Amino acid sequence: MSLSDGATAKTLSDRTTWAIREVLDGRRRGWRAILPFAGPAIVASVAYIDPGNFATNIQAGARYGYGLLWVVVLANGVAMLFQAMSAKLGIVTNRNLAELCRAHFPRPVVLAMWGVSEIAAMATDLAEFLGGAIGLSLLFGMPLLLGMVITALITYGILLLDRTGFRPLELVIGGLVGVIGICYVIELAVAPPDWGAAALGMVVPHLADRSAVLLSVGIVGATVMPHAIYLHSGLTQDRAPARNGRERRQLLRYSNREVVAALTMAGIVNAAMVMMAARAFHLGHSDIAEIQAAYHTLVPLFGAAAAGVFLVSLMASGISSSVVGTMAGQVIMQGFVGWRIPIWMRRLVTMIPAFVVVAAGFDATRSLVISQVVLSLVLPVPMIALLLLSRRRDVMGTMAAGRGMLALAVAATGATILLNACLLADTMGLPIPGLSG
Known about the structure:
Layout lengths: L11 H13 L15 H6 L5 H14 L4 H25 L3 H8 L2 H34 L3 H16 L6 H25 L4 H9 L6 H14 L2 H12 L7 H37 L9 H12 L1 H34 L5 H17 L4 H15 L1 H11 L2 H4 L6 H25 L10
Helix pairs in contact: 3-10, 3-12, 3-16, 4-9, 4-10, 4-11, 4-12, 4-17, 5-14, 5-17, 6-7, 6-14, 6-15, 6-16, 7-14, 7-15, 8-12, 8-14, 10-16, 10-19, 11-14, 13-14, 17-19
C-alpha cells in the first residue's frame, strides 16, 4: 500500500496519514488542512471532563458557589501547558514519555515511577468506570453492578475499533466529547448562572476553609491527569512521523492549536459544571455531595429533562474516559517495562477496584473524590519527568524547552506540590496558615 495517493489508502487511518502528508508537503490548505490533525488533544481532553470532574465540581459548586472556579481555571491552564509539552515530546522524539523515562532514568526510579503510575491508572479507572455505571443505573433504574457490567461491555466494544487504526477511535471519542459539550450548553440554558459572580470566582483566589483544600486538590487531580500526560506523547508519536525539522515545526504548530482548542472546551465544560451546581444547589442544597443526590435534586428543581441531560453527559463522560484510561494504561505498561497485555486483560485488571468498592458498599461519589485526590498526589511524578526530559538537548535536540517554558512548568509543578502539602497537613490535623478550621 502506498500513501502517495489518497485513493490507494485502505483504511480511514491511512487516509488521515495521507492527508497530513498532503498538508506537510503544501498541497492542502485552508480548513481542509486543519481537520487531519484533530485527534490526539481531543482524546486527551476526555481526561479533563471525566466523572471525577463531575464529582468534585458538583461538590465545589454546591458548597462554595462560584468561589472555587479559580481552581478550575488554574488547573486548566496547567493542563494546557503539560499536554502541549507531552505532545511535543512525542512529535520530536517519536517516543512516548514512559519509553523515554525507561531509556534515560535509573532502573530503580523507572520501576518506582511505573508502580505509582499503575496506582494512578487504577484510581483513574475507578472514577471513570463508576461514573458511567452511575449514569446508566440512574437513567434506566438498574442496579449499579449491572450498570458497571454494561459500561464494561460498551467500553470494550469501542476499544476494538483500535484494530483498524487510530482514526475510528478518535472520531468516536470526539463524538462523545461533543455530546458532553452540548449537554452542558443545555444545562446552562436551563439554569443560567450569575455571570458576574462566576467571573469574579474565576479570577480571585480564595479558600474558605480546610474542606476547600481537600476539594481544591481533588479538582486539580480531576483536571490535570497523570495518565493523560503519558498518553498524549504516545498519541502523537506515530500518526505521521516528521521526516525533517521543517515538518516537526509544522506538526508542533498544529498540535499546539489543537491543544488550546480542545482543552479550552474542556475548561468551559468544567466551569459549566461548577456554575450549574452553584446555581442549582448552593442556596438551599449546599450539602449535596453525591452525583445520585444531585440528580434527584435536579428533577424537582428544573424538571426530568434537565436531570436526564445531566445523566447523558455523565454516561458519555464515563464511557469515553474509560476507553482513554485503558489506552493510557497500555502506554504506561509498555513504555516503562516493555509488557503489552491483551486489551481485555488490561480492562479487567483496572475494573477490579471499582467492583470491590461497589460490592463493599462504599459511597460511590465519595470514592470518586478520593480517587481524584490520589491522582493529584501522583501527578508531580509525570510532571517532573516531562520537565526534566523536555529541557535535555540529547533528547529534544534544538527543540528543547526554553527558559520561559521551563519557568512556567516549574511554577505549575510547584503549585501542585504545594496543594498536595496542604492536603497532607489537613489530613494529619496540622494547622494551615490562613485557613479557618
